Amino acid sequence: MNDPRLSALLATVPGLRLKTGPADLEYYGRDWTRRWVPAPLAIALPADAGEVQAIVRWANRHRVAIAPSGGRTGLSGGAVAANGELVLSLERMNRVLAFDPIDRSLTVQPGIVLEAVHQAARGHGLLYPVDFAARGSCSIGGNIATNAGGIRVIRYGNTREWVAGLKVVTGAGELLDLNRGLVKNASGYDLRHLFIGSEGTLGIVVEATLRLTDPPPPSNVMLLALPSFEVLMQVFAVFRERLQLEAFEFFTDHALRHVLAHGGQAPFGESHPYYVVAEFAAGDDARQAAALAAFEHCLENGLVSDGVISQSDAQAAQLWRLREGITESLARHRPYKNDVSVRISAMPAFLAEAQSLLAREYPHFEVVWFGHIGDGNLHINVLKPDDVDEAGFVSQCAHVTDLLAATLQRHGGSISAEHGIGLVKKPWLDSARSAAEIEVMRGIRHVLDPLGIMNPGKLFDPPVPPGHA
Hints:
Uridine Diphospho-n-acetylenolpyruvylglucosamine Reductase, domain 2; 4 domains; alpha+beta; 7-stranded antiparallel beta sheet
């Protein structure tokens, strides 16, 4: 502990847990991206909001940048600390603070993992509906910082819809209590929504009040095999019209092959080029019959080639594993990830153009597609061949992302659907946001973080001071 700034920090926050060991610096200094070498100053693990506020005020006095840290499951470099930042890990602030049965809300600390929130809601007979495969390791604070979506957006929307109130410490060290769980509050700007999706650039969430809802009716899961990419949106239209969809997820045969390589049994006797996992309300005979009728309609019209419907919770989980296991199964290939979105109505035209673009630009790379077709979100994973060096691979993929961003711009889409901008997608922010919008965002950031200590370099670069160009 030779750095006098850290000595001052410990004097400011007596009893603060601080880590400086090389293994800790490496572990806490990165997220699921692996492009940057972690090089944080230290890791601070506050126990409560008061300690967070004291740390931020210390950082302002000593001009030390802060990298907020949750579960670090992000895929855009938003939690990377590669330039001497103090990592402020919220993992110790992981408790449920309160449950209100009248408001049907759960107040939690930001370091609580999503799965623990699910369990707490179920314990009160209710549901927190935001869900995705990283539920066992991602934190609520990180979910809020990226406005996380996941597999049930088609039914429930993104994280934003379920945040009733926030307590945040701004980059200036002020504690704000935003919206206080109110359903109606027409008293000026709703600052709560500025912090949702802000990627830690405005301040740090220290408490969140989450809305809960009734559990959904019993559901079934159907796995569909599709003969071609072109029929995908037609199948979605049929199922959306006839069923109460909870989720509608697609993936390719390449994705399935990687998942099965990790274990499991192929769902059909033969391989098909595309697959869909659809979950739908099926609590009575009429809904079950509607699901079978939808499948038979698609089968008769050549939109699907085969299908299987779950007969138990265990089988439903097995079918979901084919979709949720994709990211983990691809990790060893160090994929270059695109996470894009367009309006659902624009999806058919965009899909056709994007598929042609990627086939042309990646003739020798394996491209794995999957995503949340029901809400217009696609994940495109380009796998790095073993004989291609990392820098050359990233450079080539960045060139293709230039072309993909231009395609998205023509279709009114976004280069980041749910992973955030972070470091990875910063070069393409202007494809989704106008220059005027970005300047407004810079202004908001300056007001809440005047010295620019909060997650600097993420989302966009600060303006160059006059005379320093």
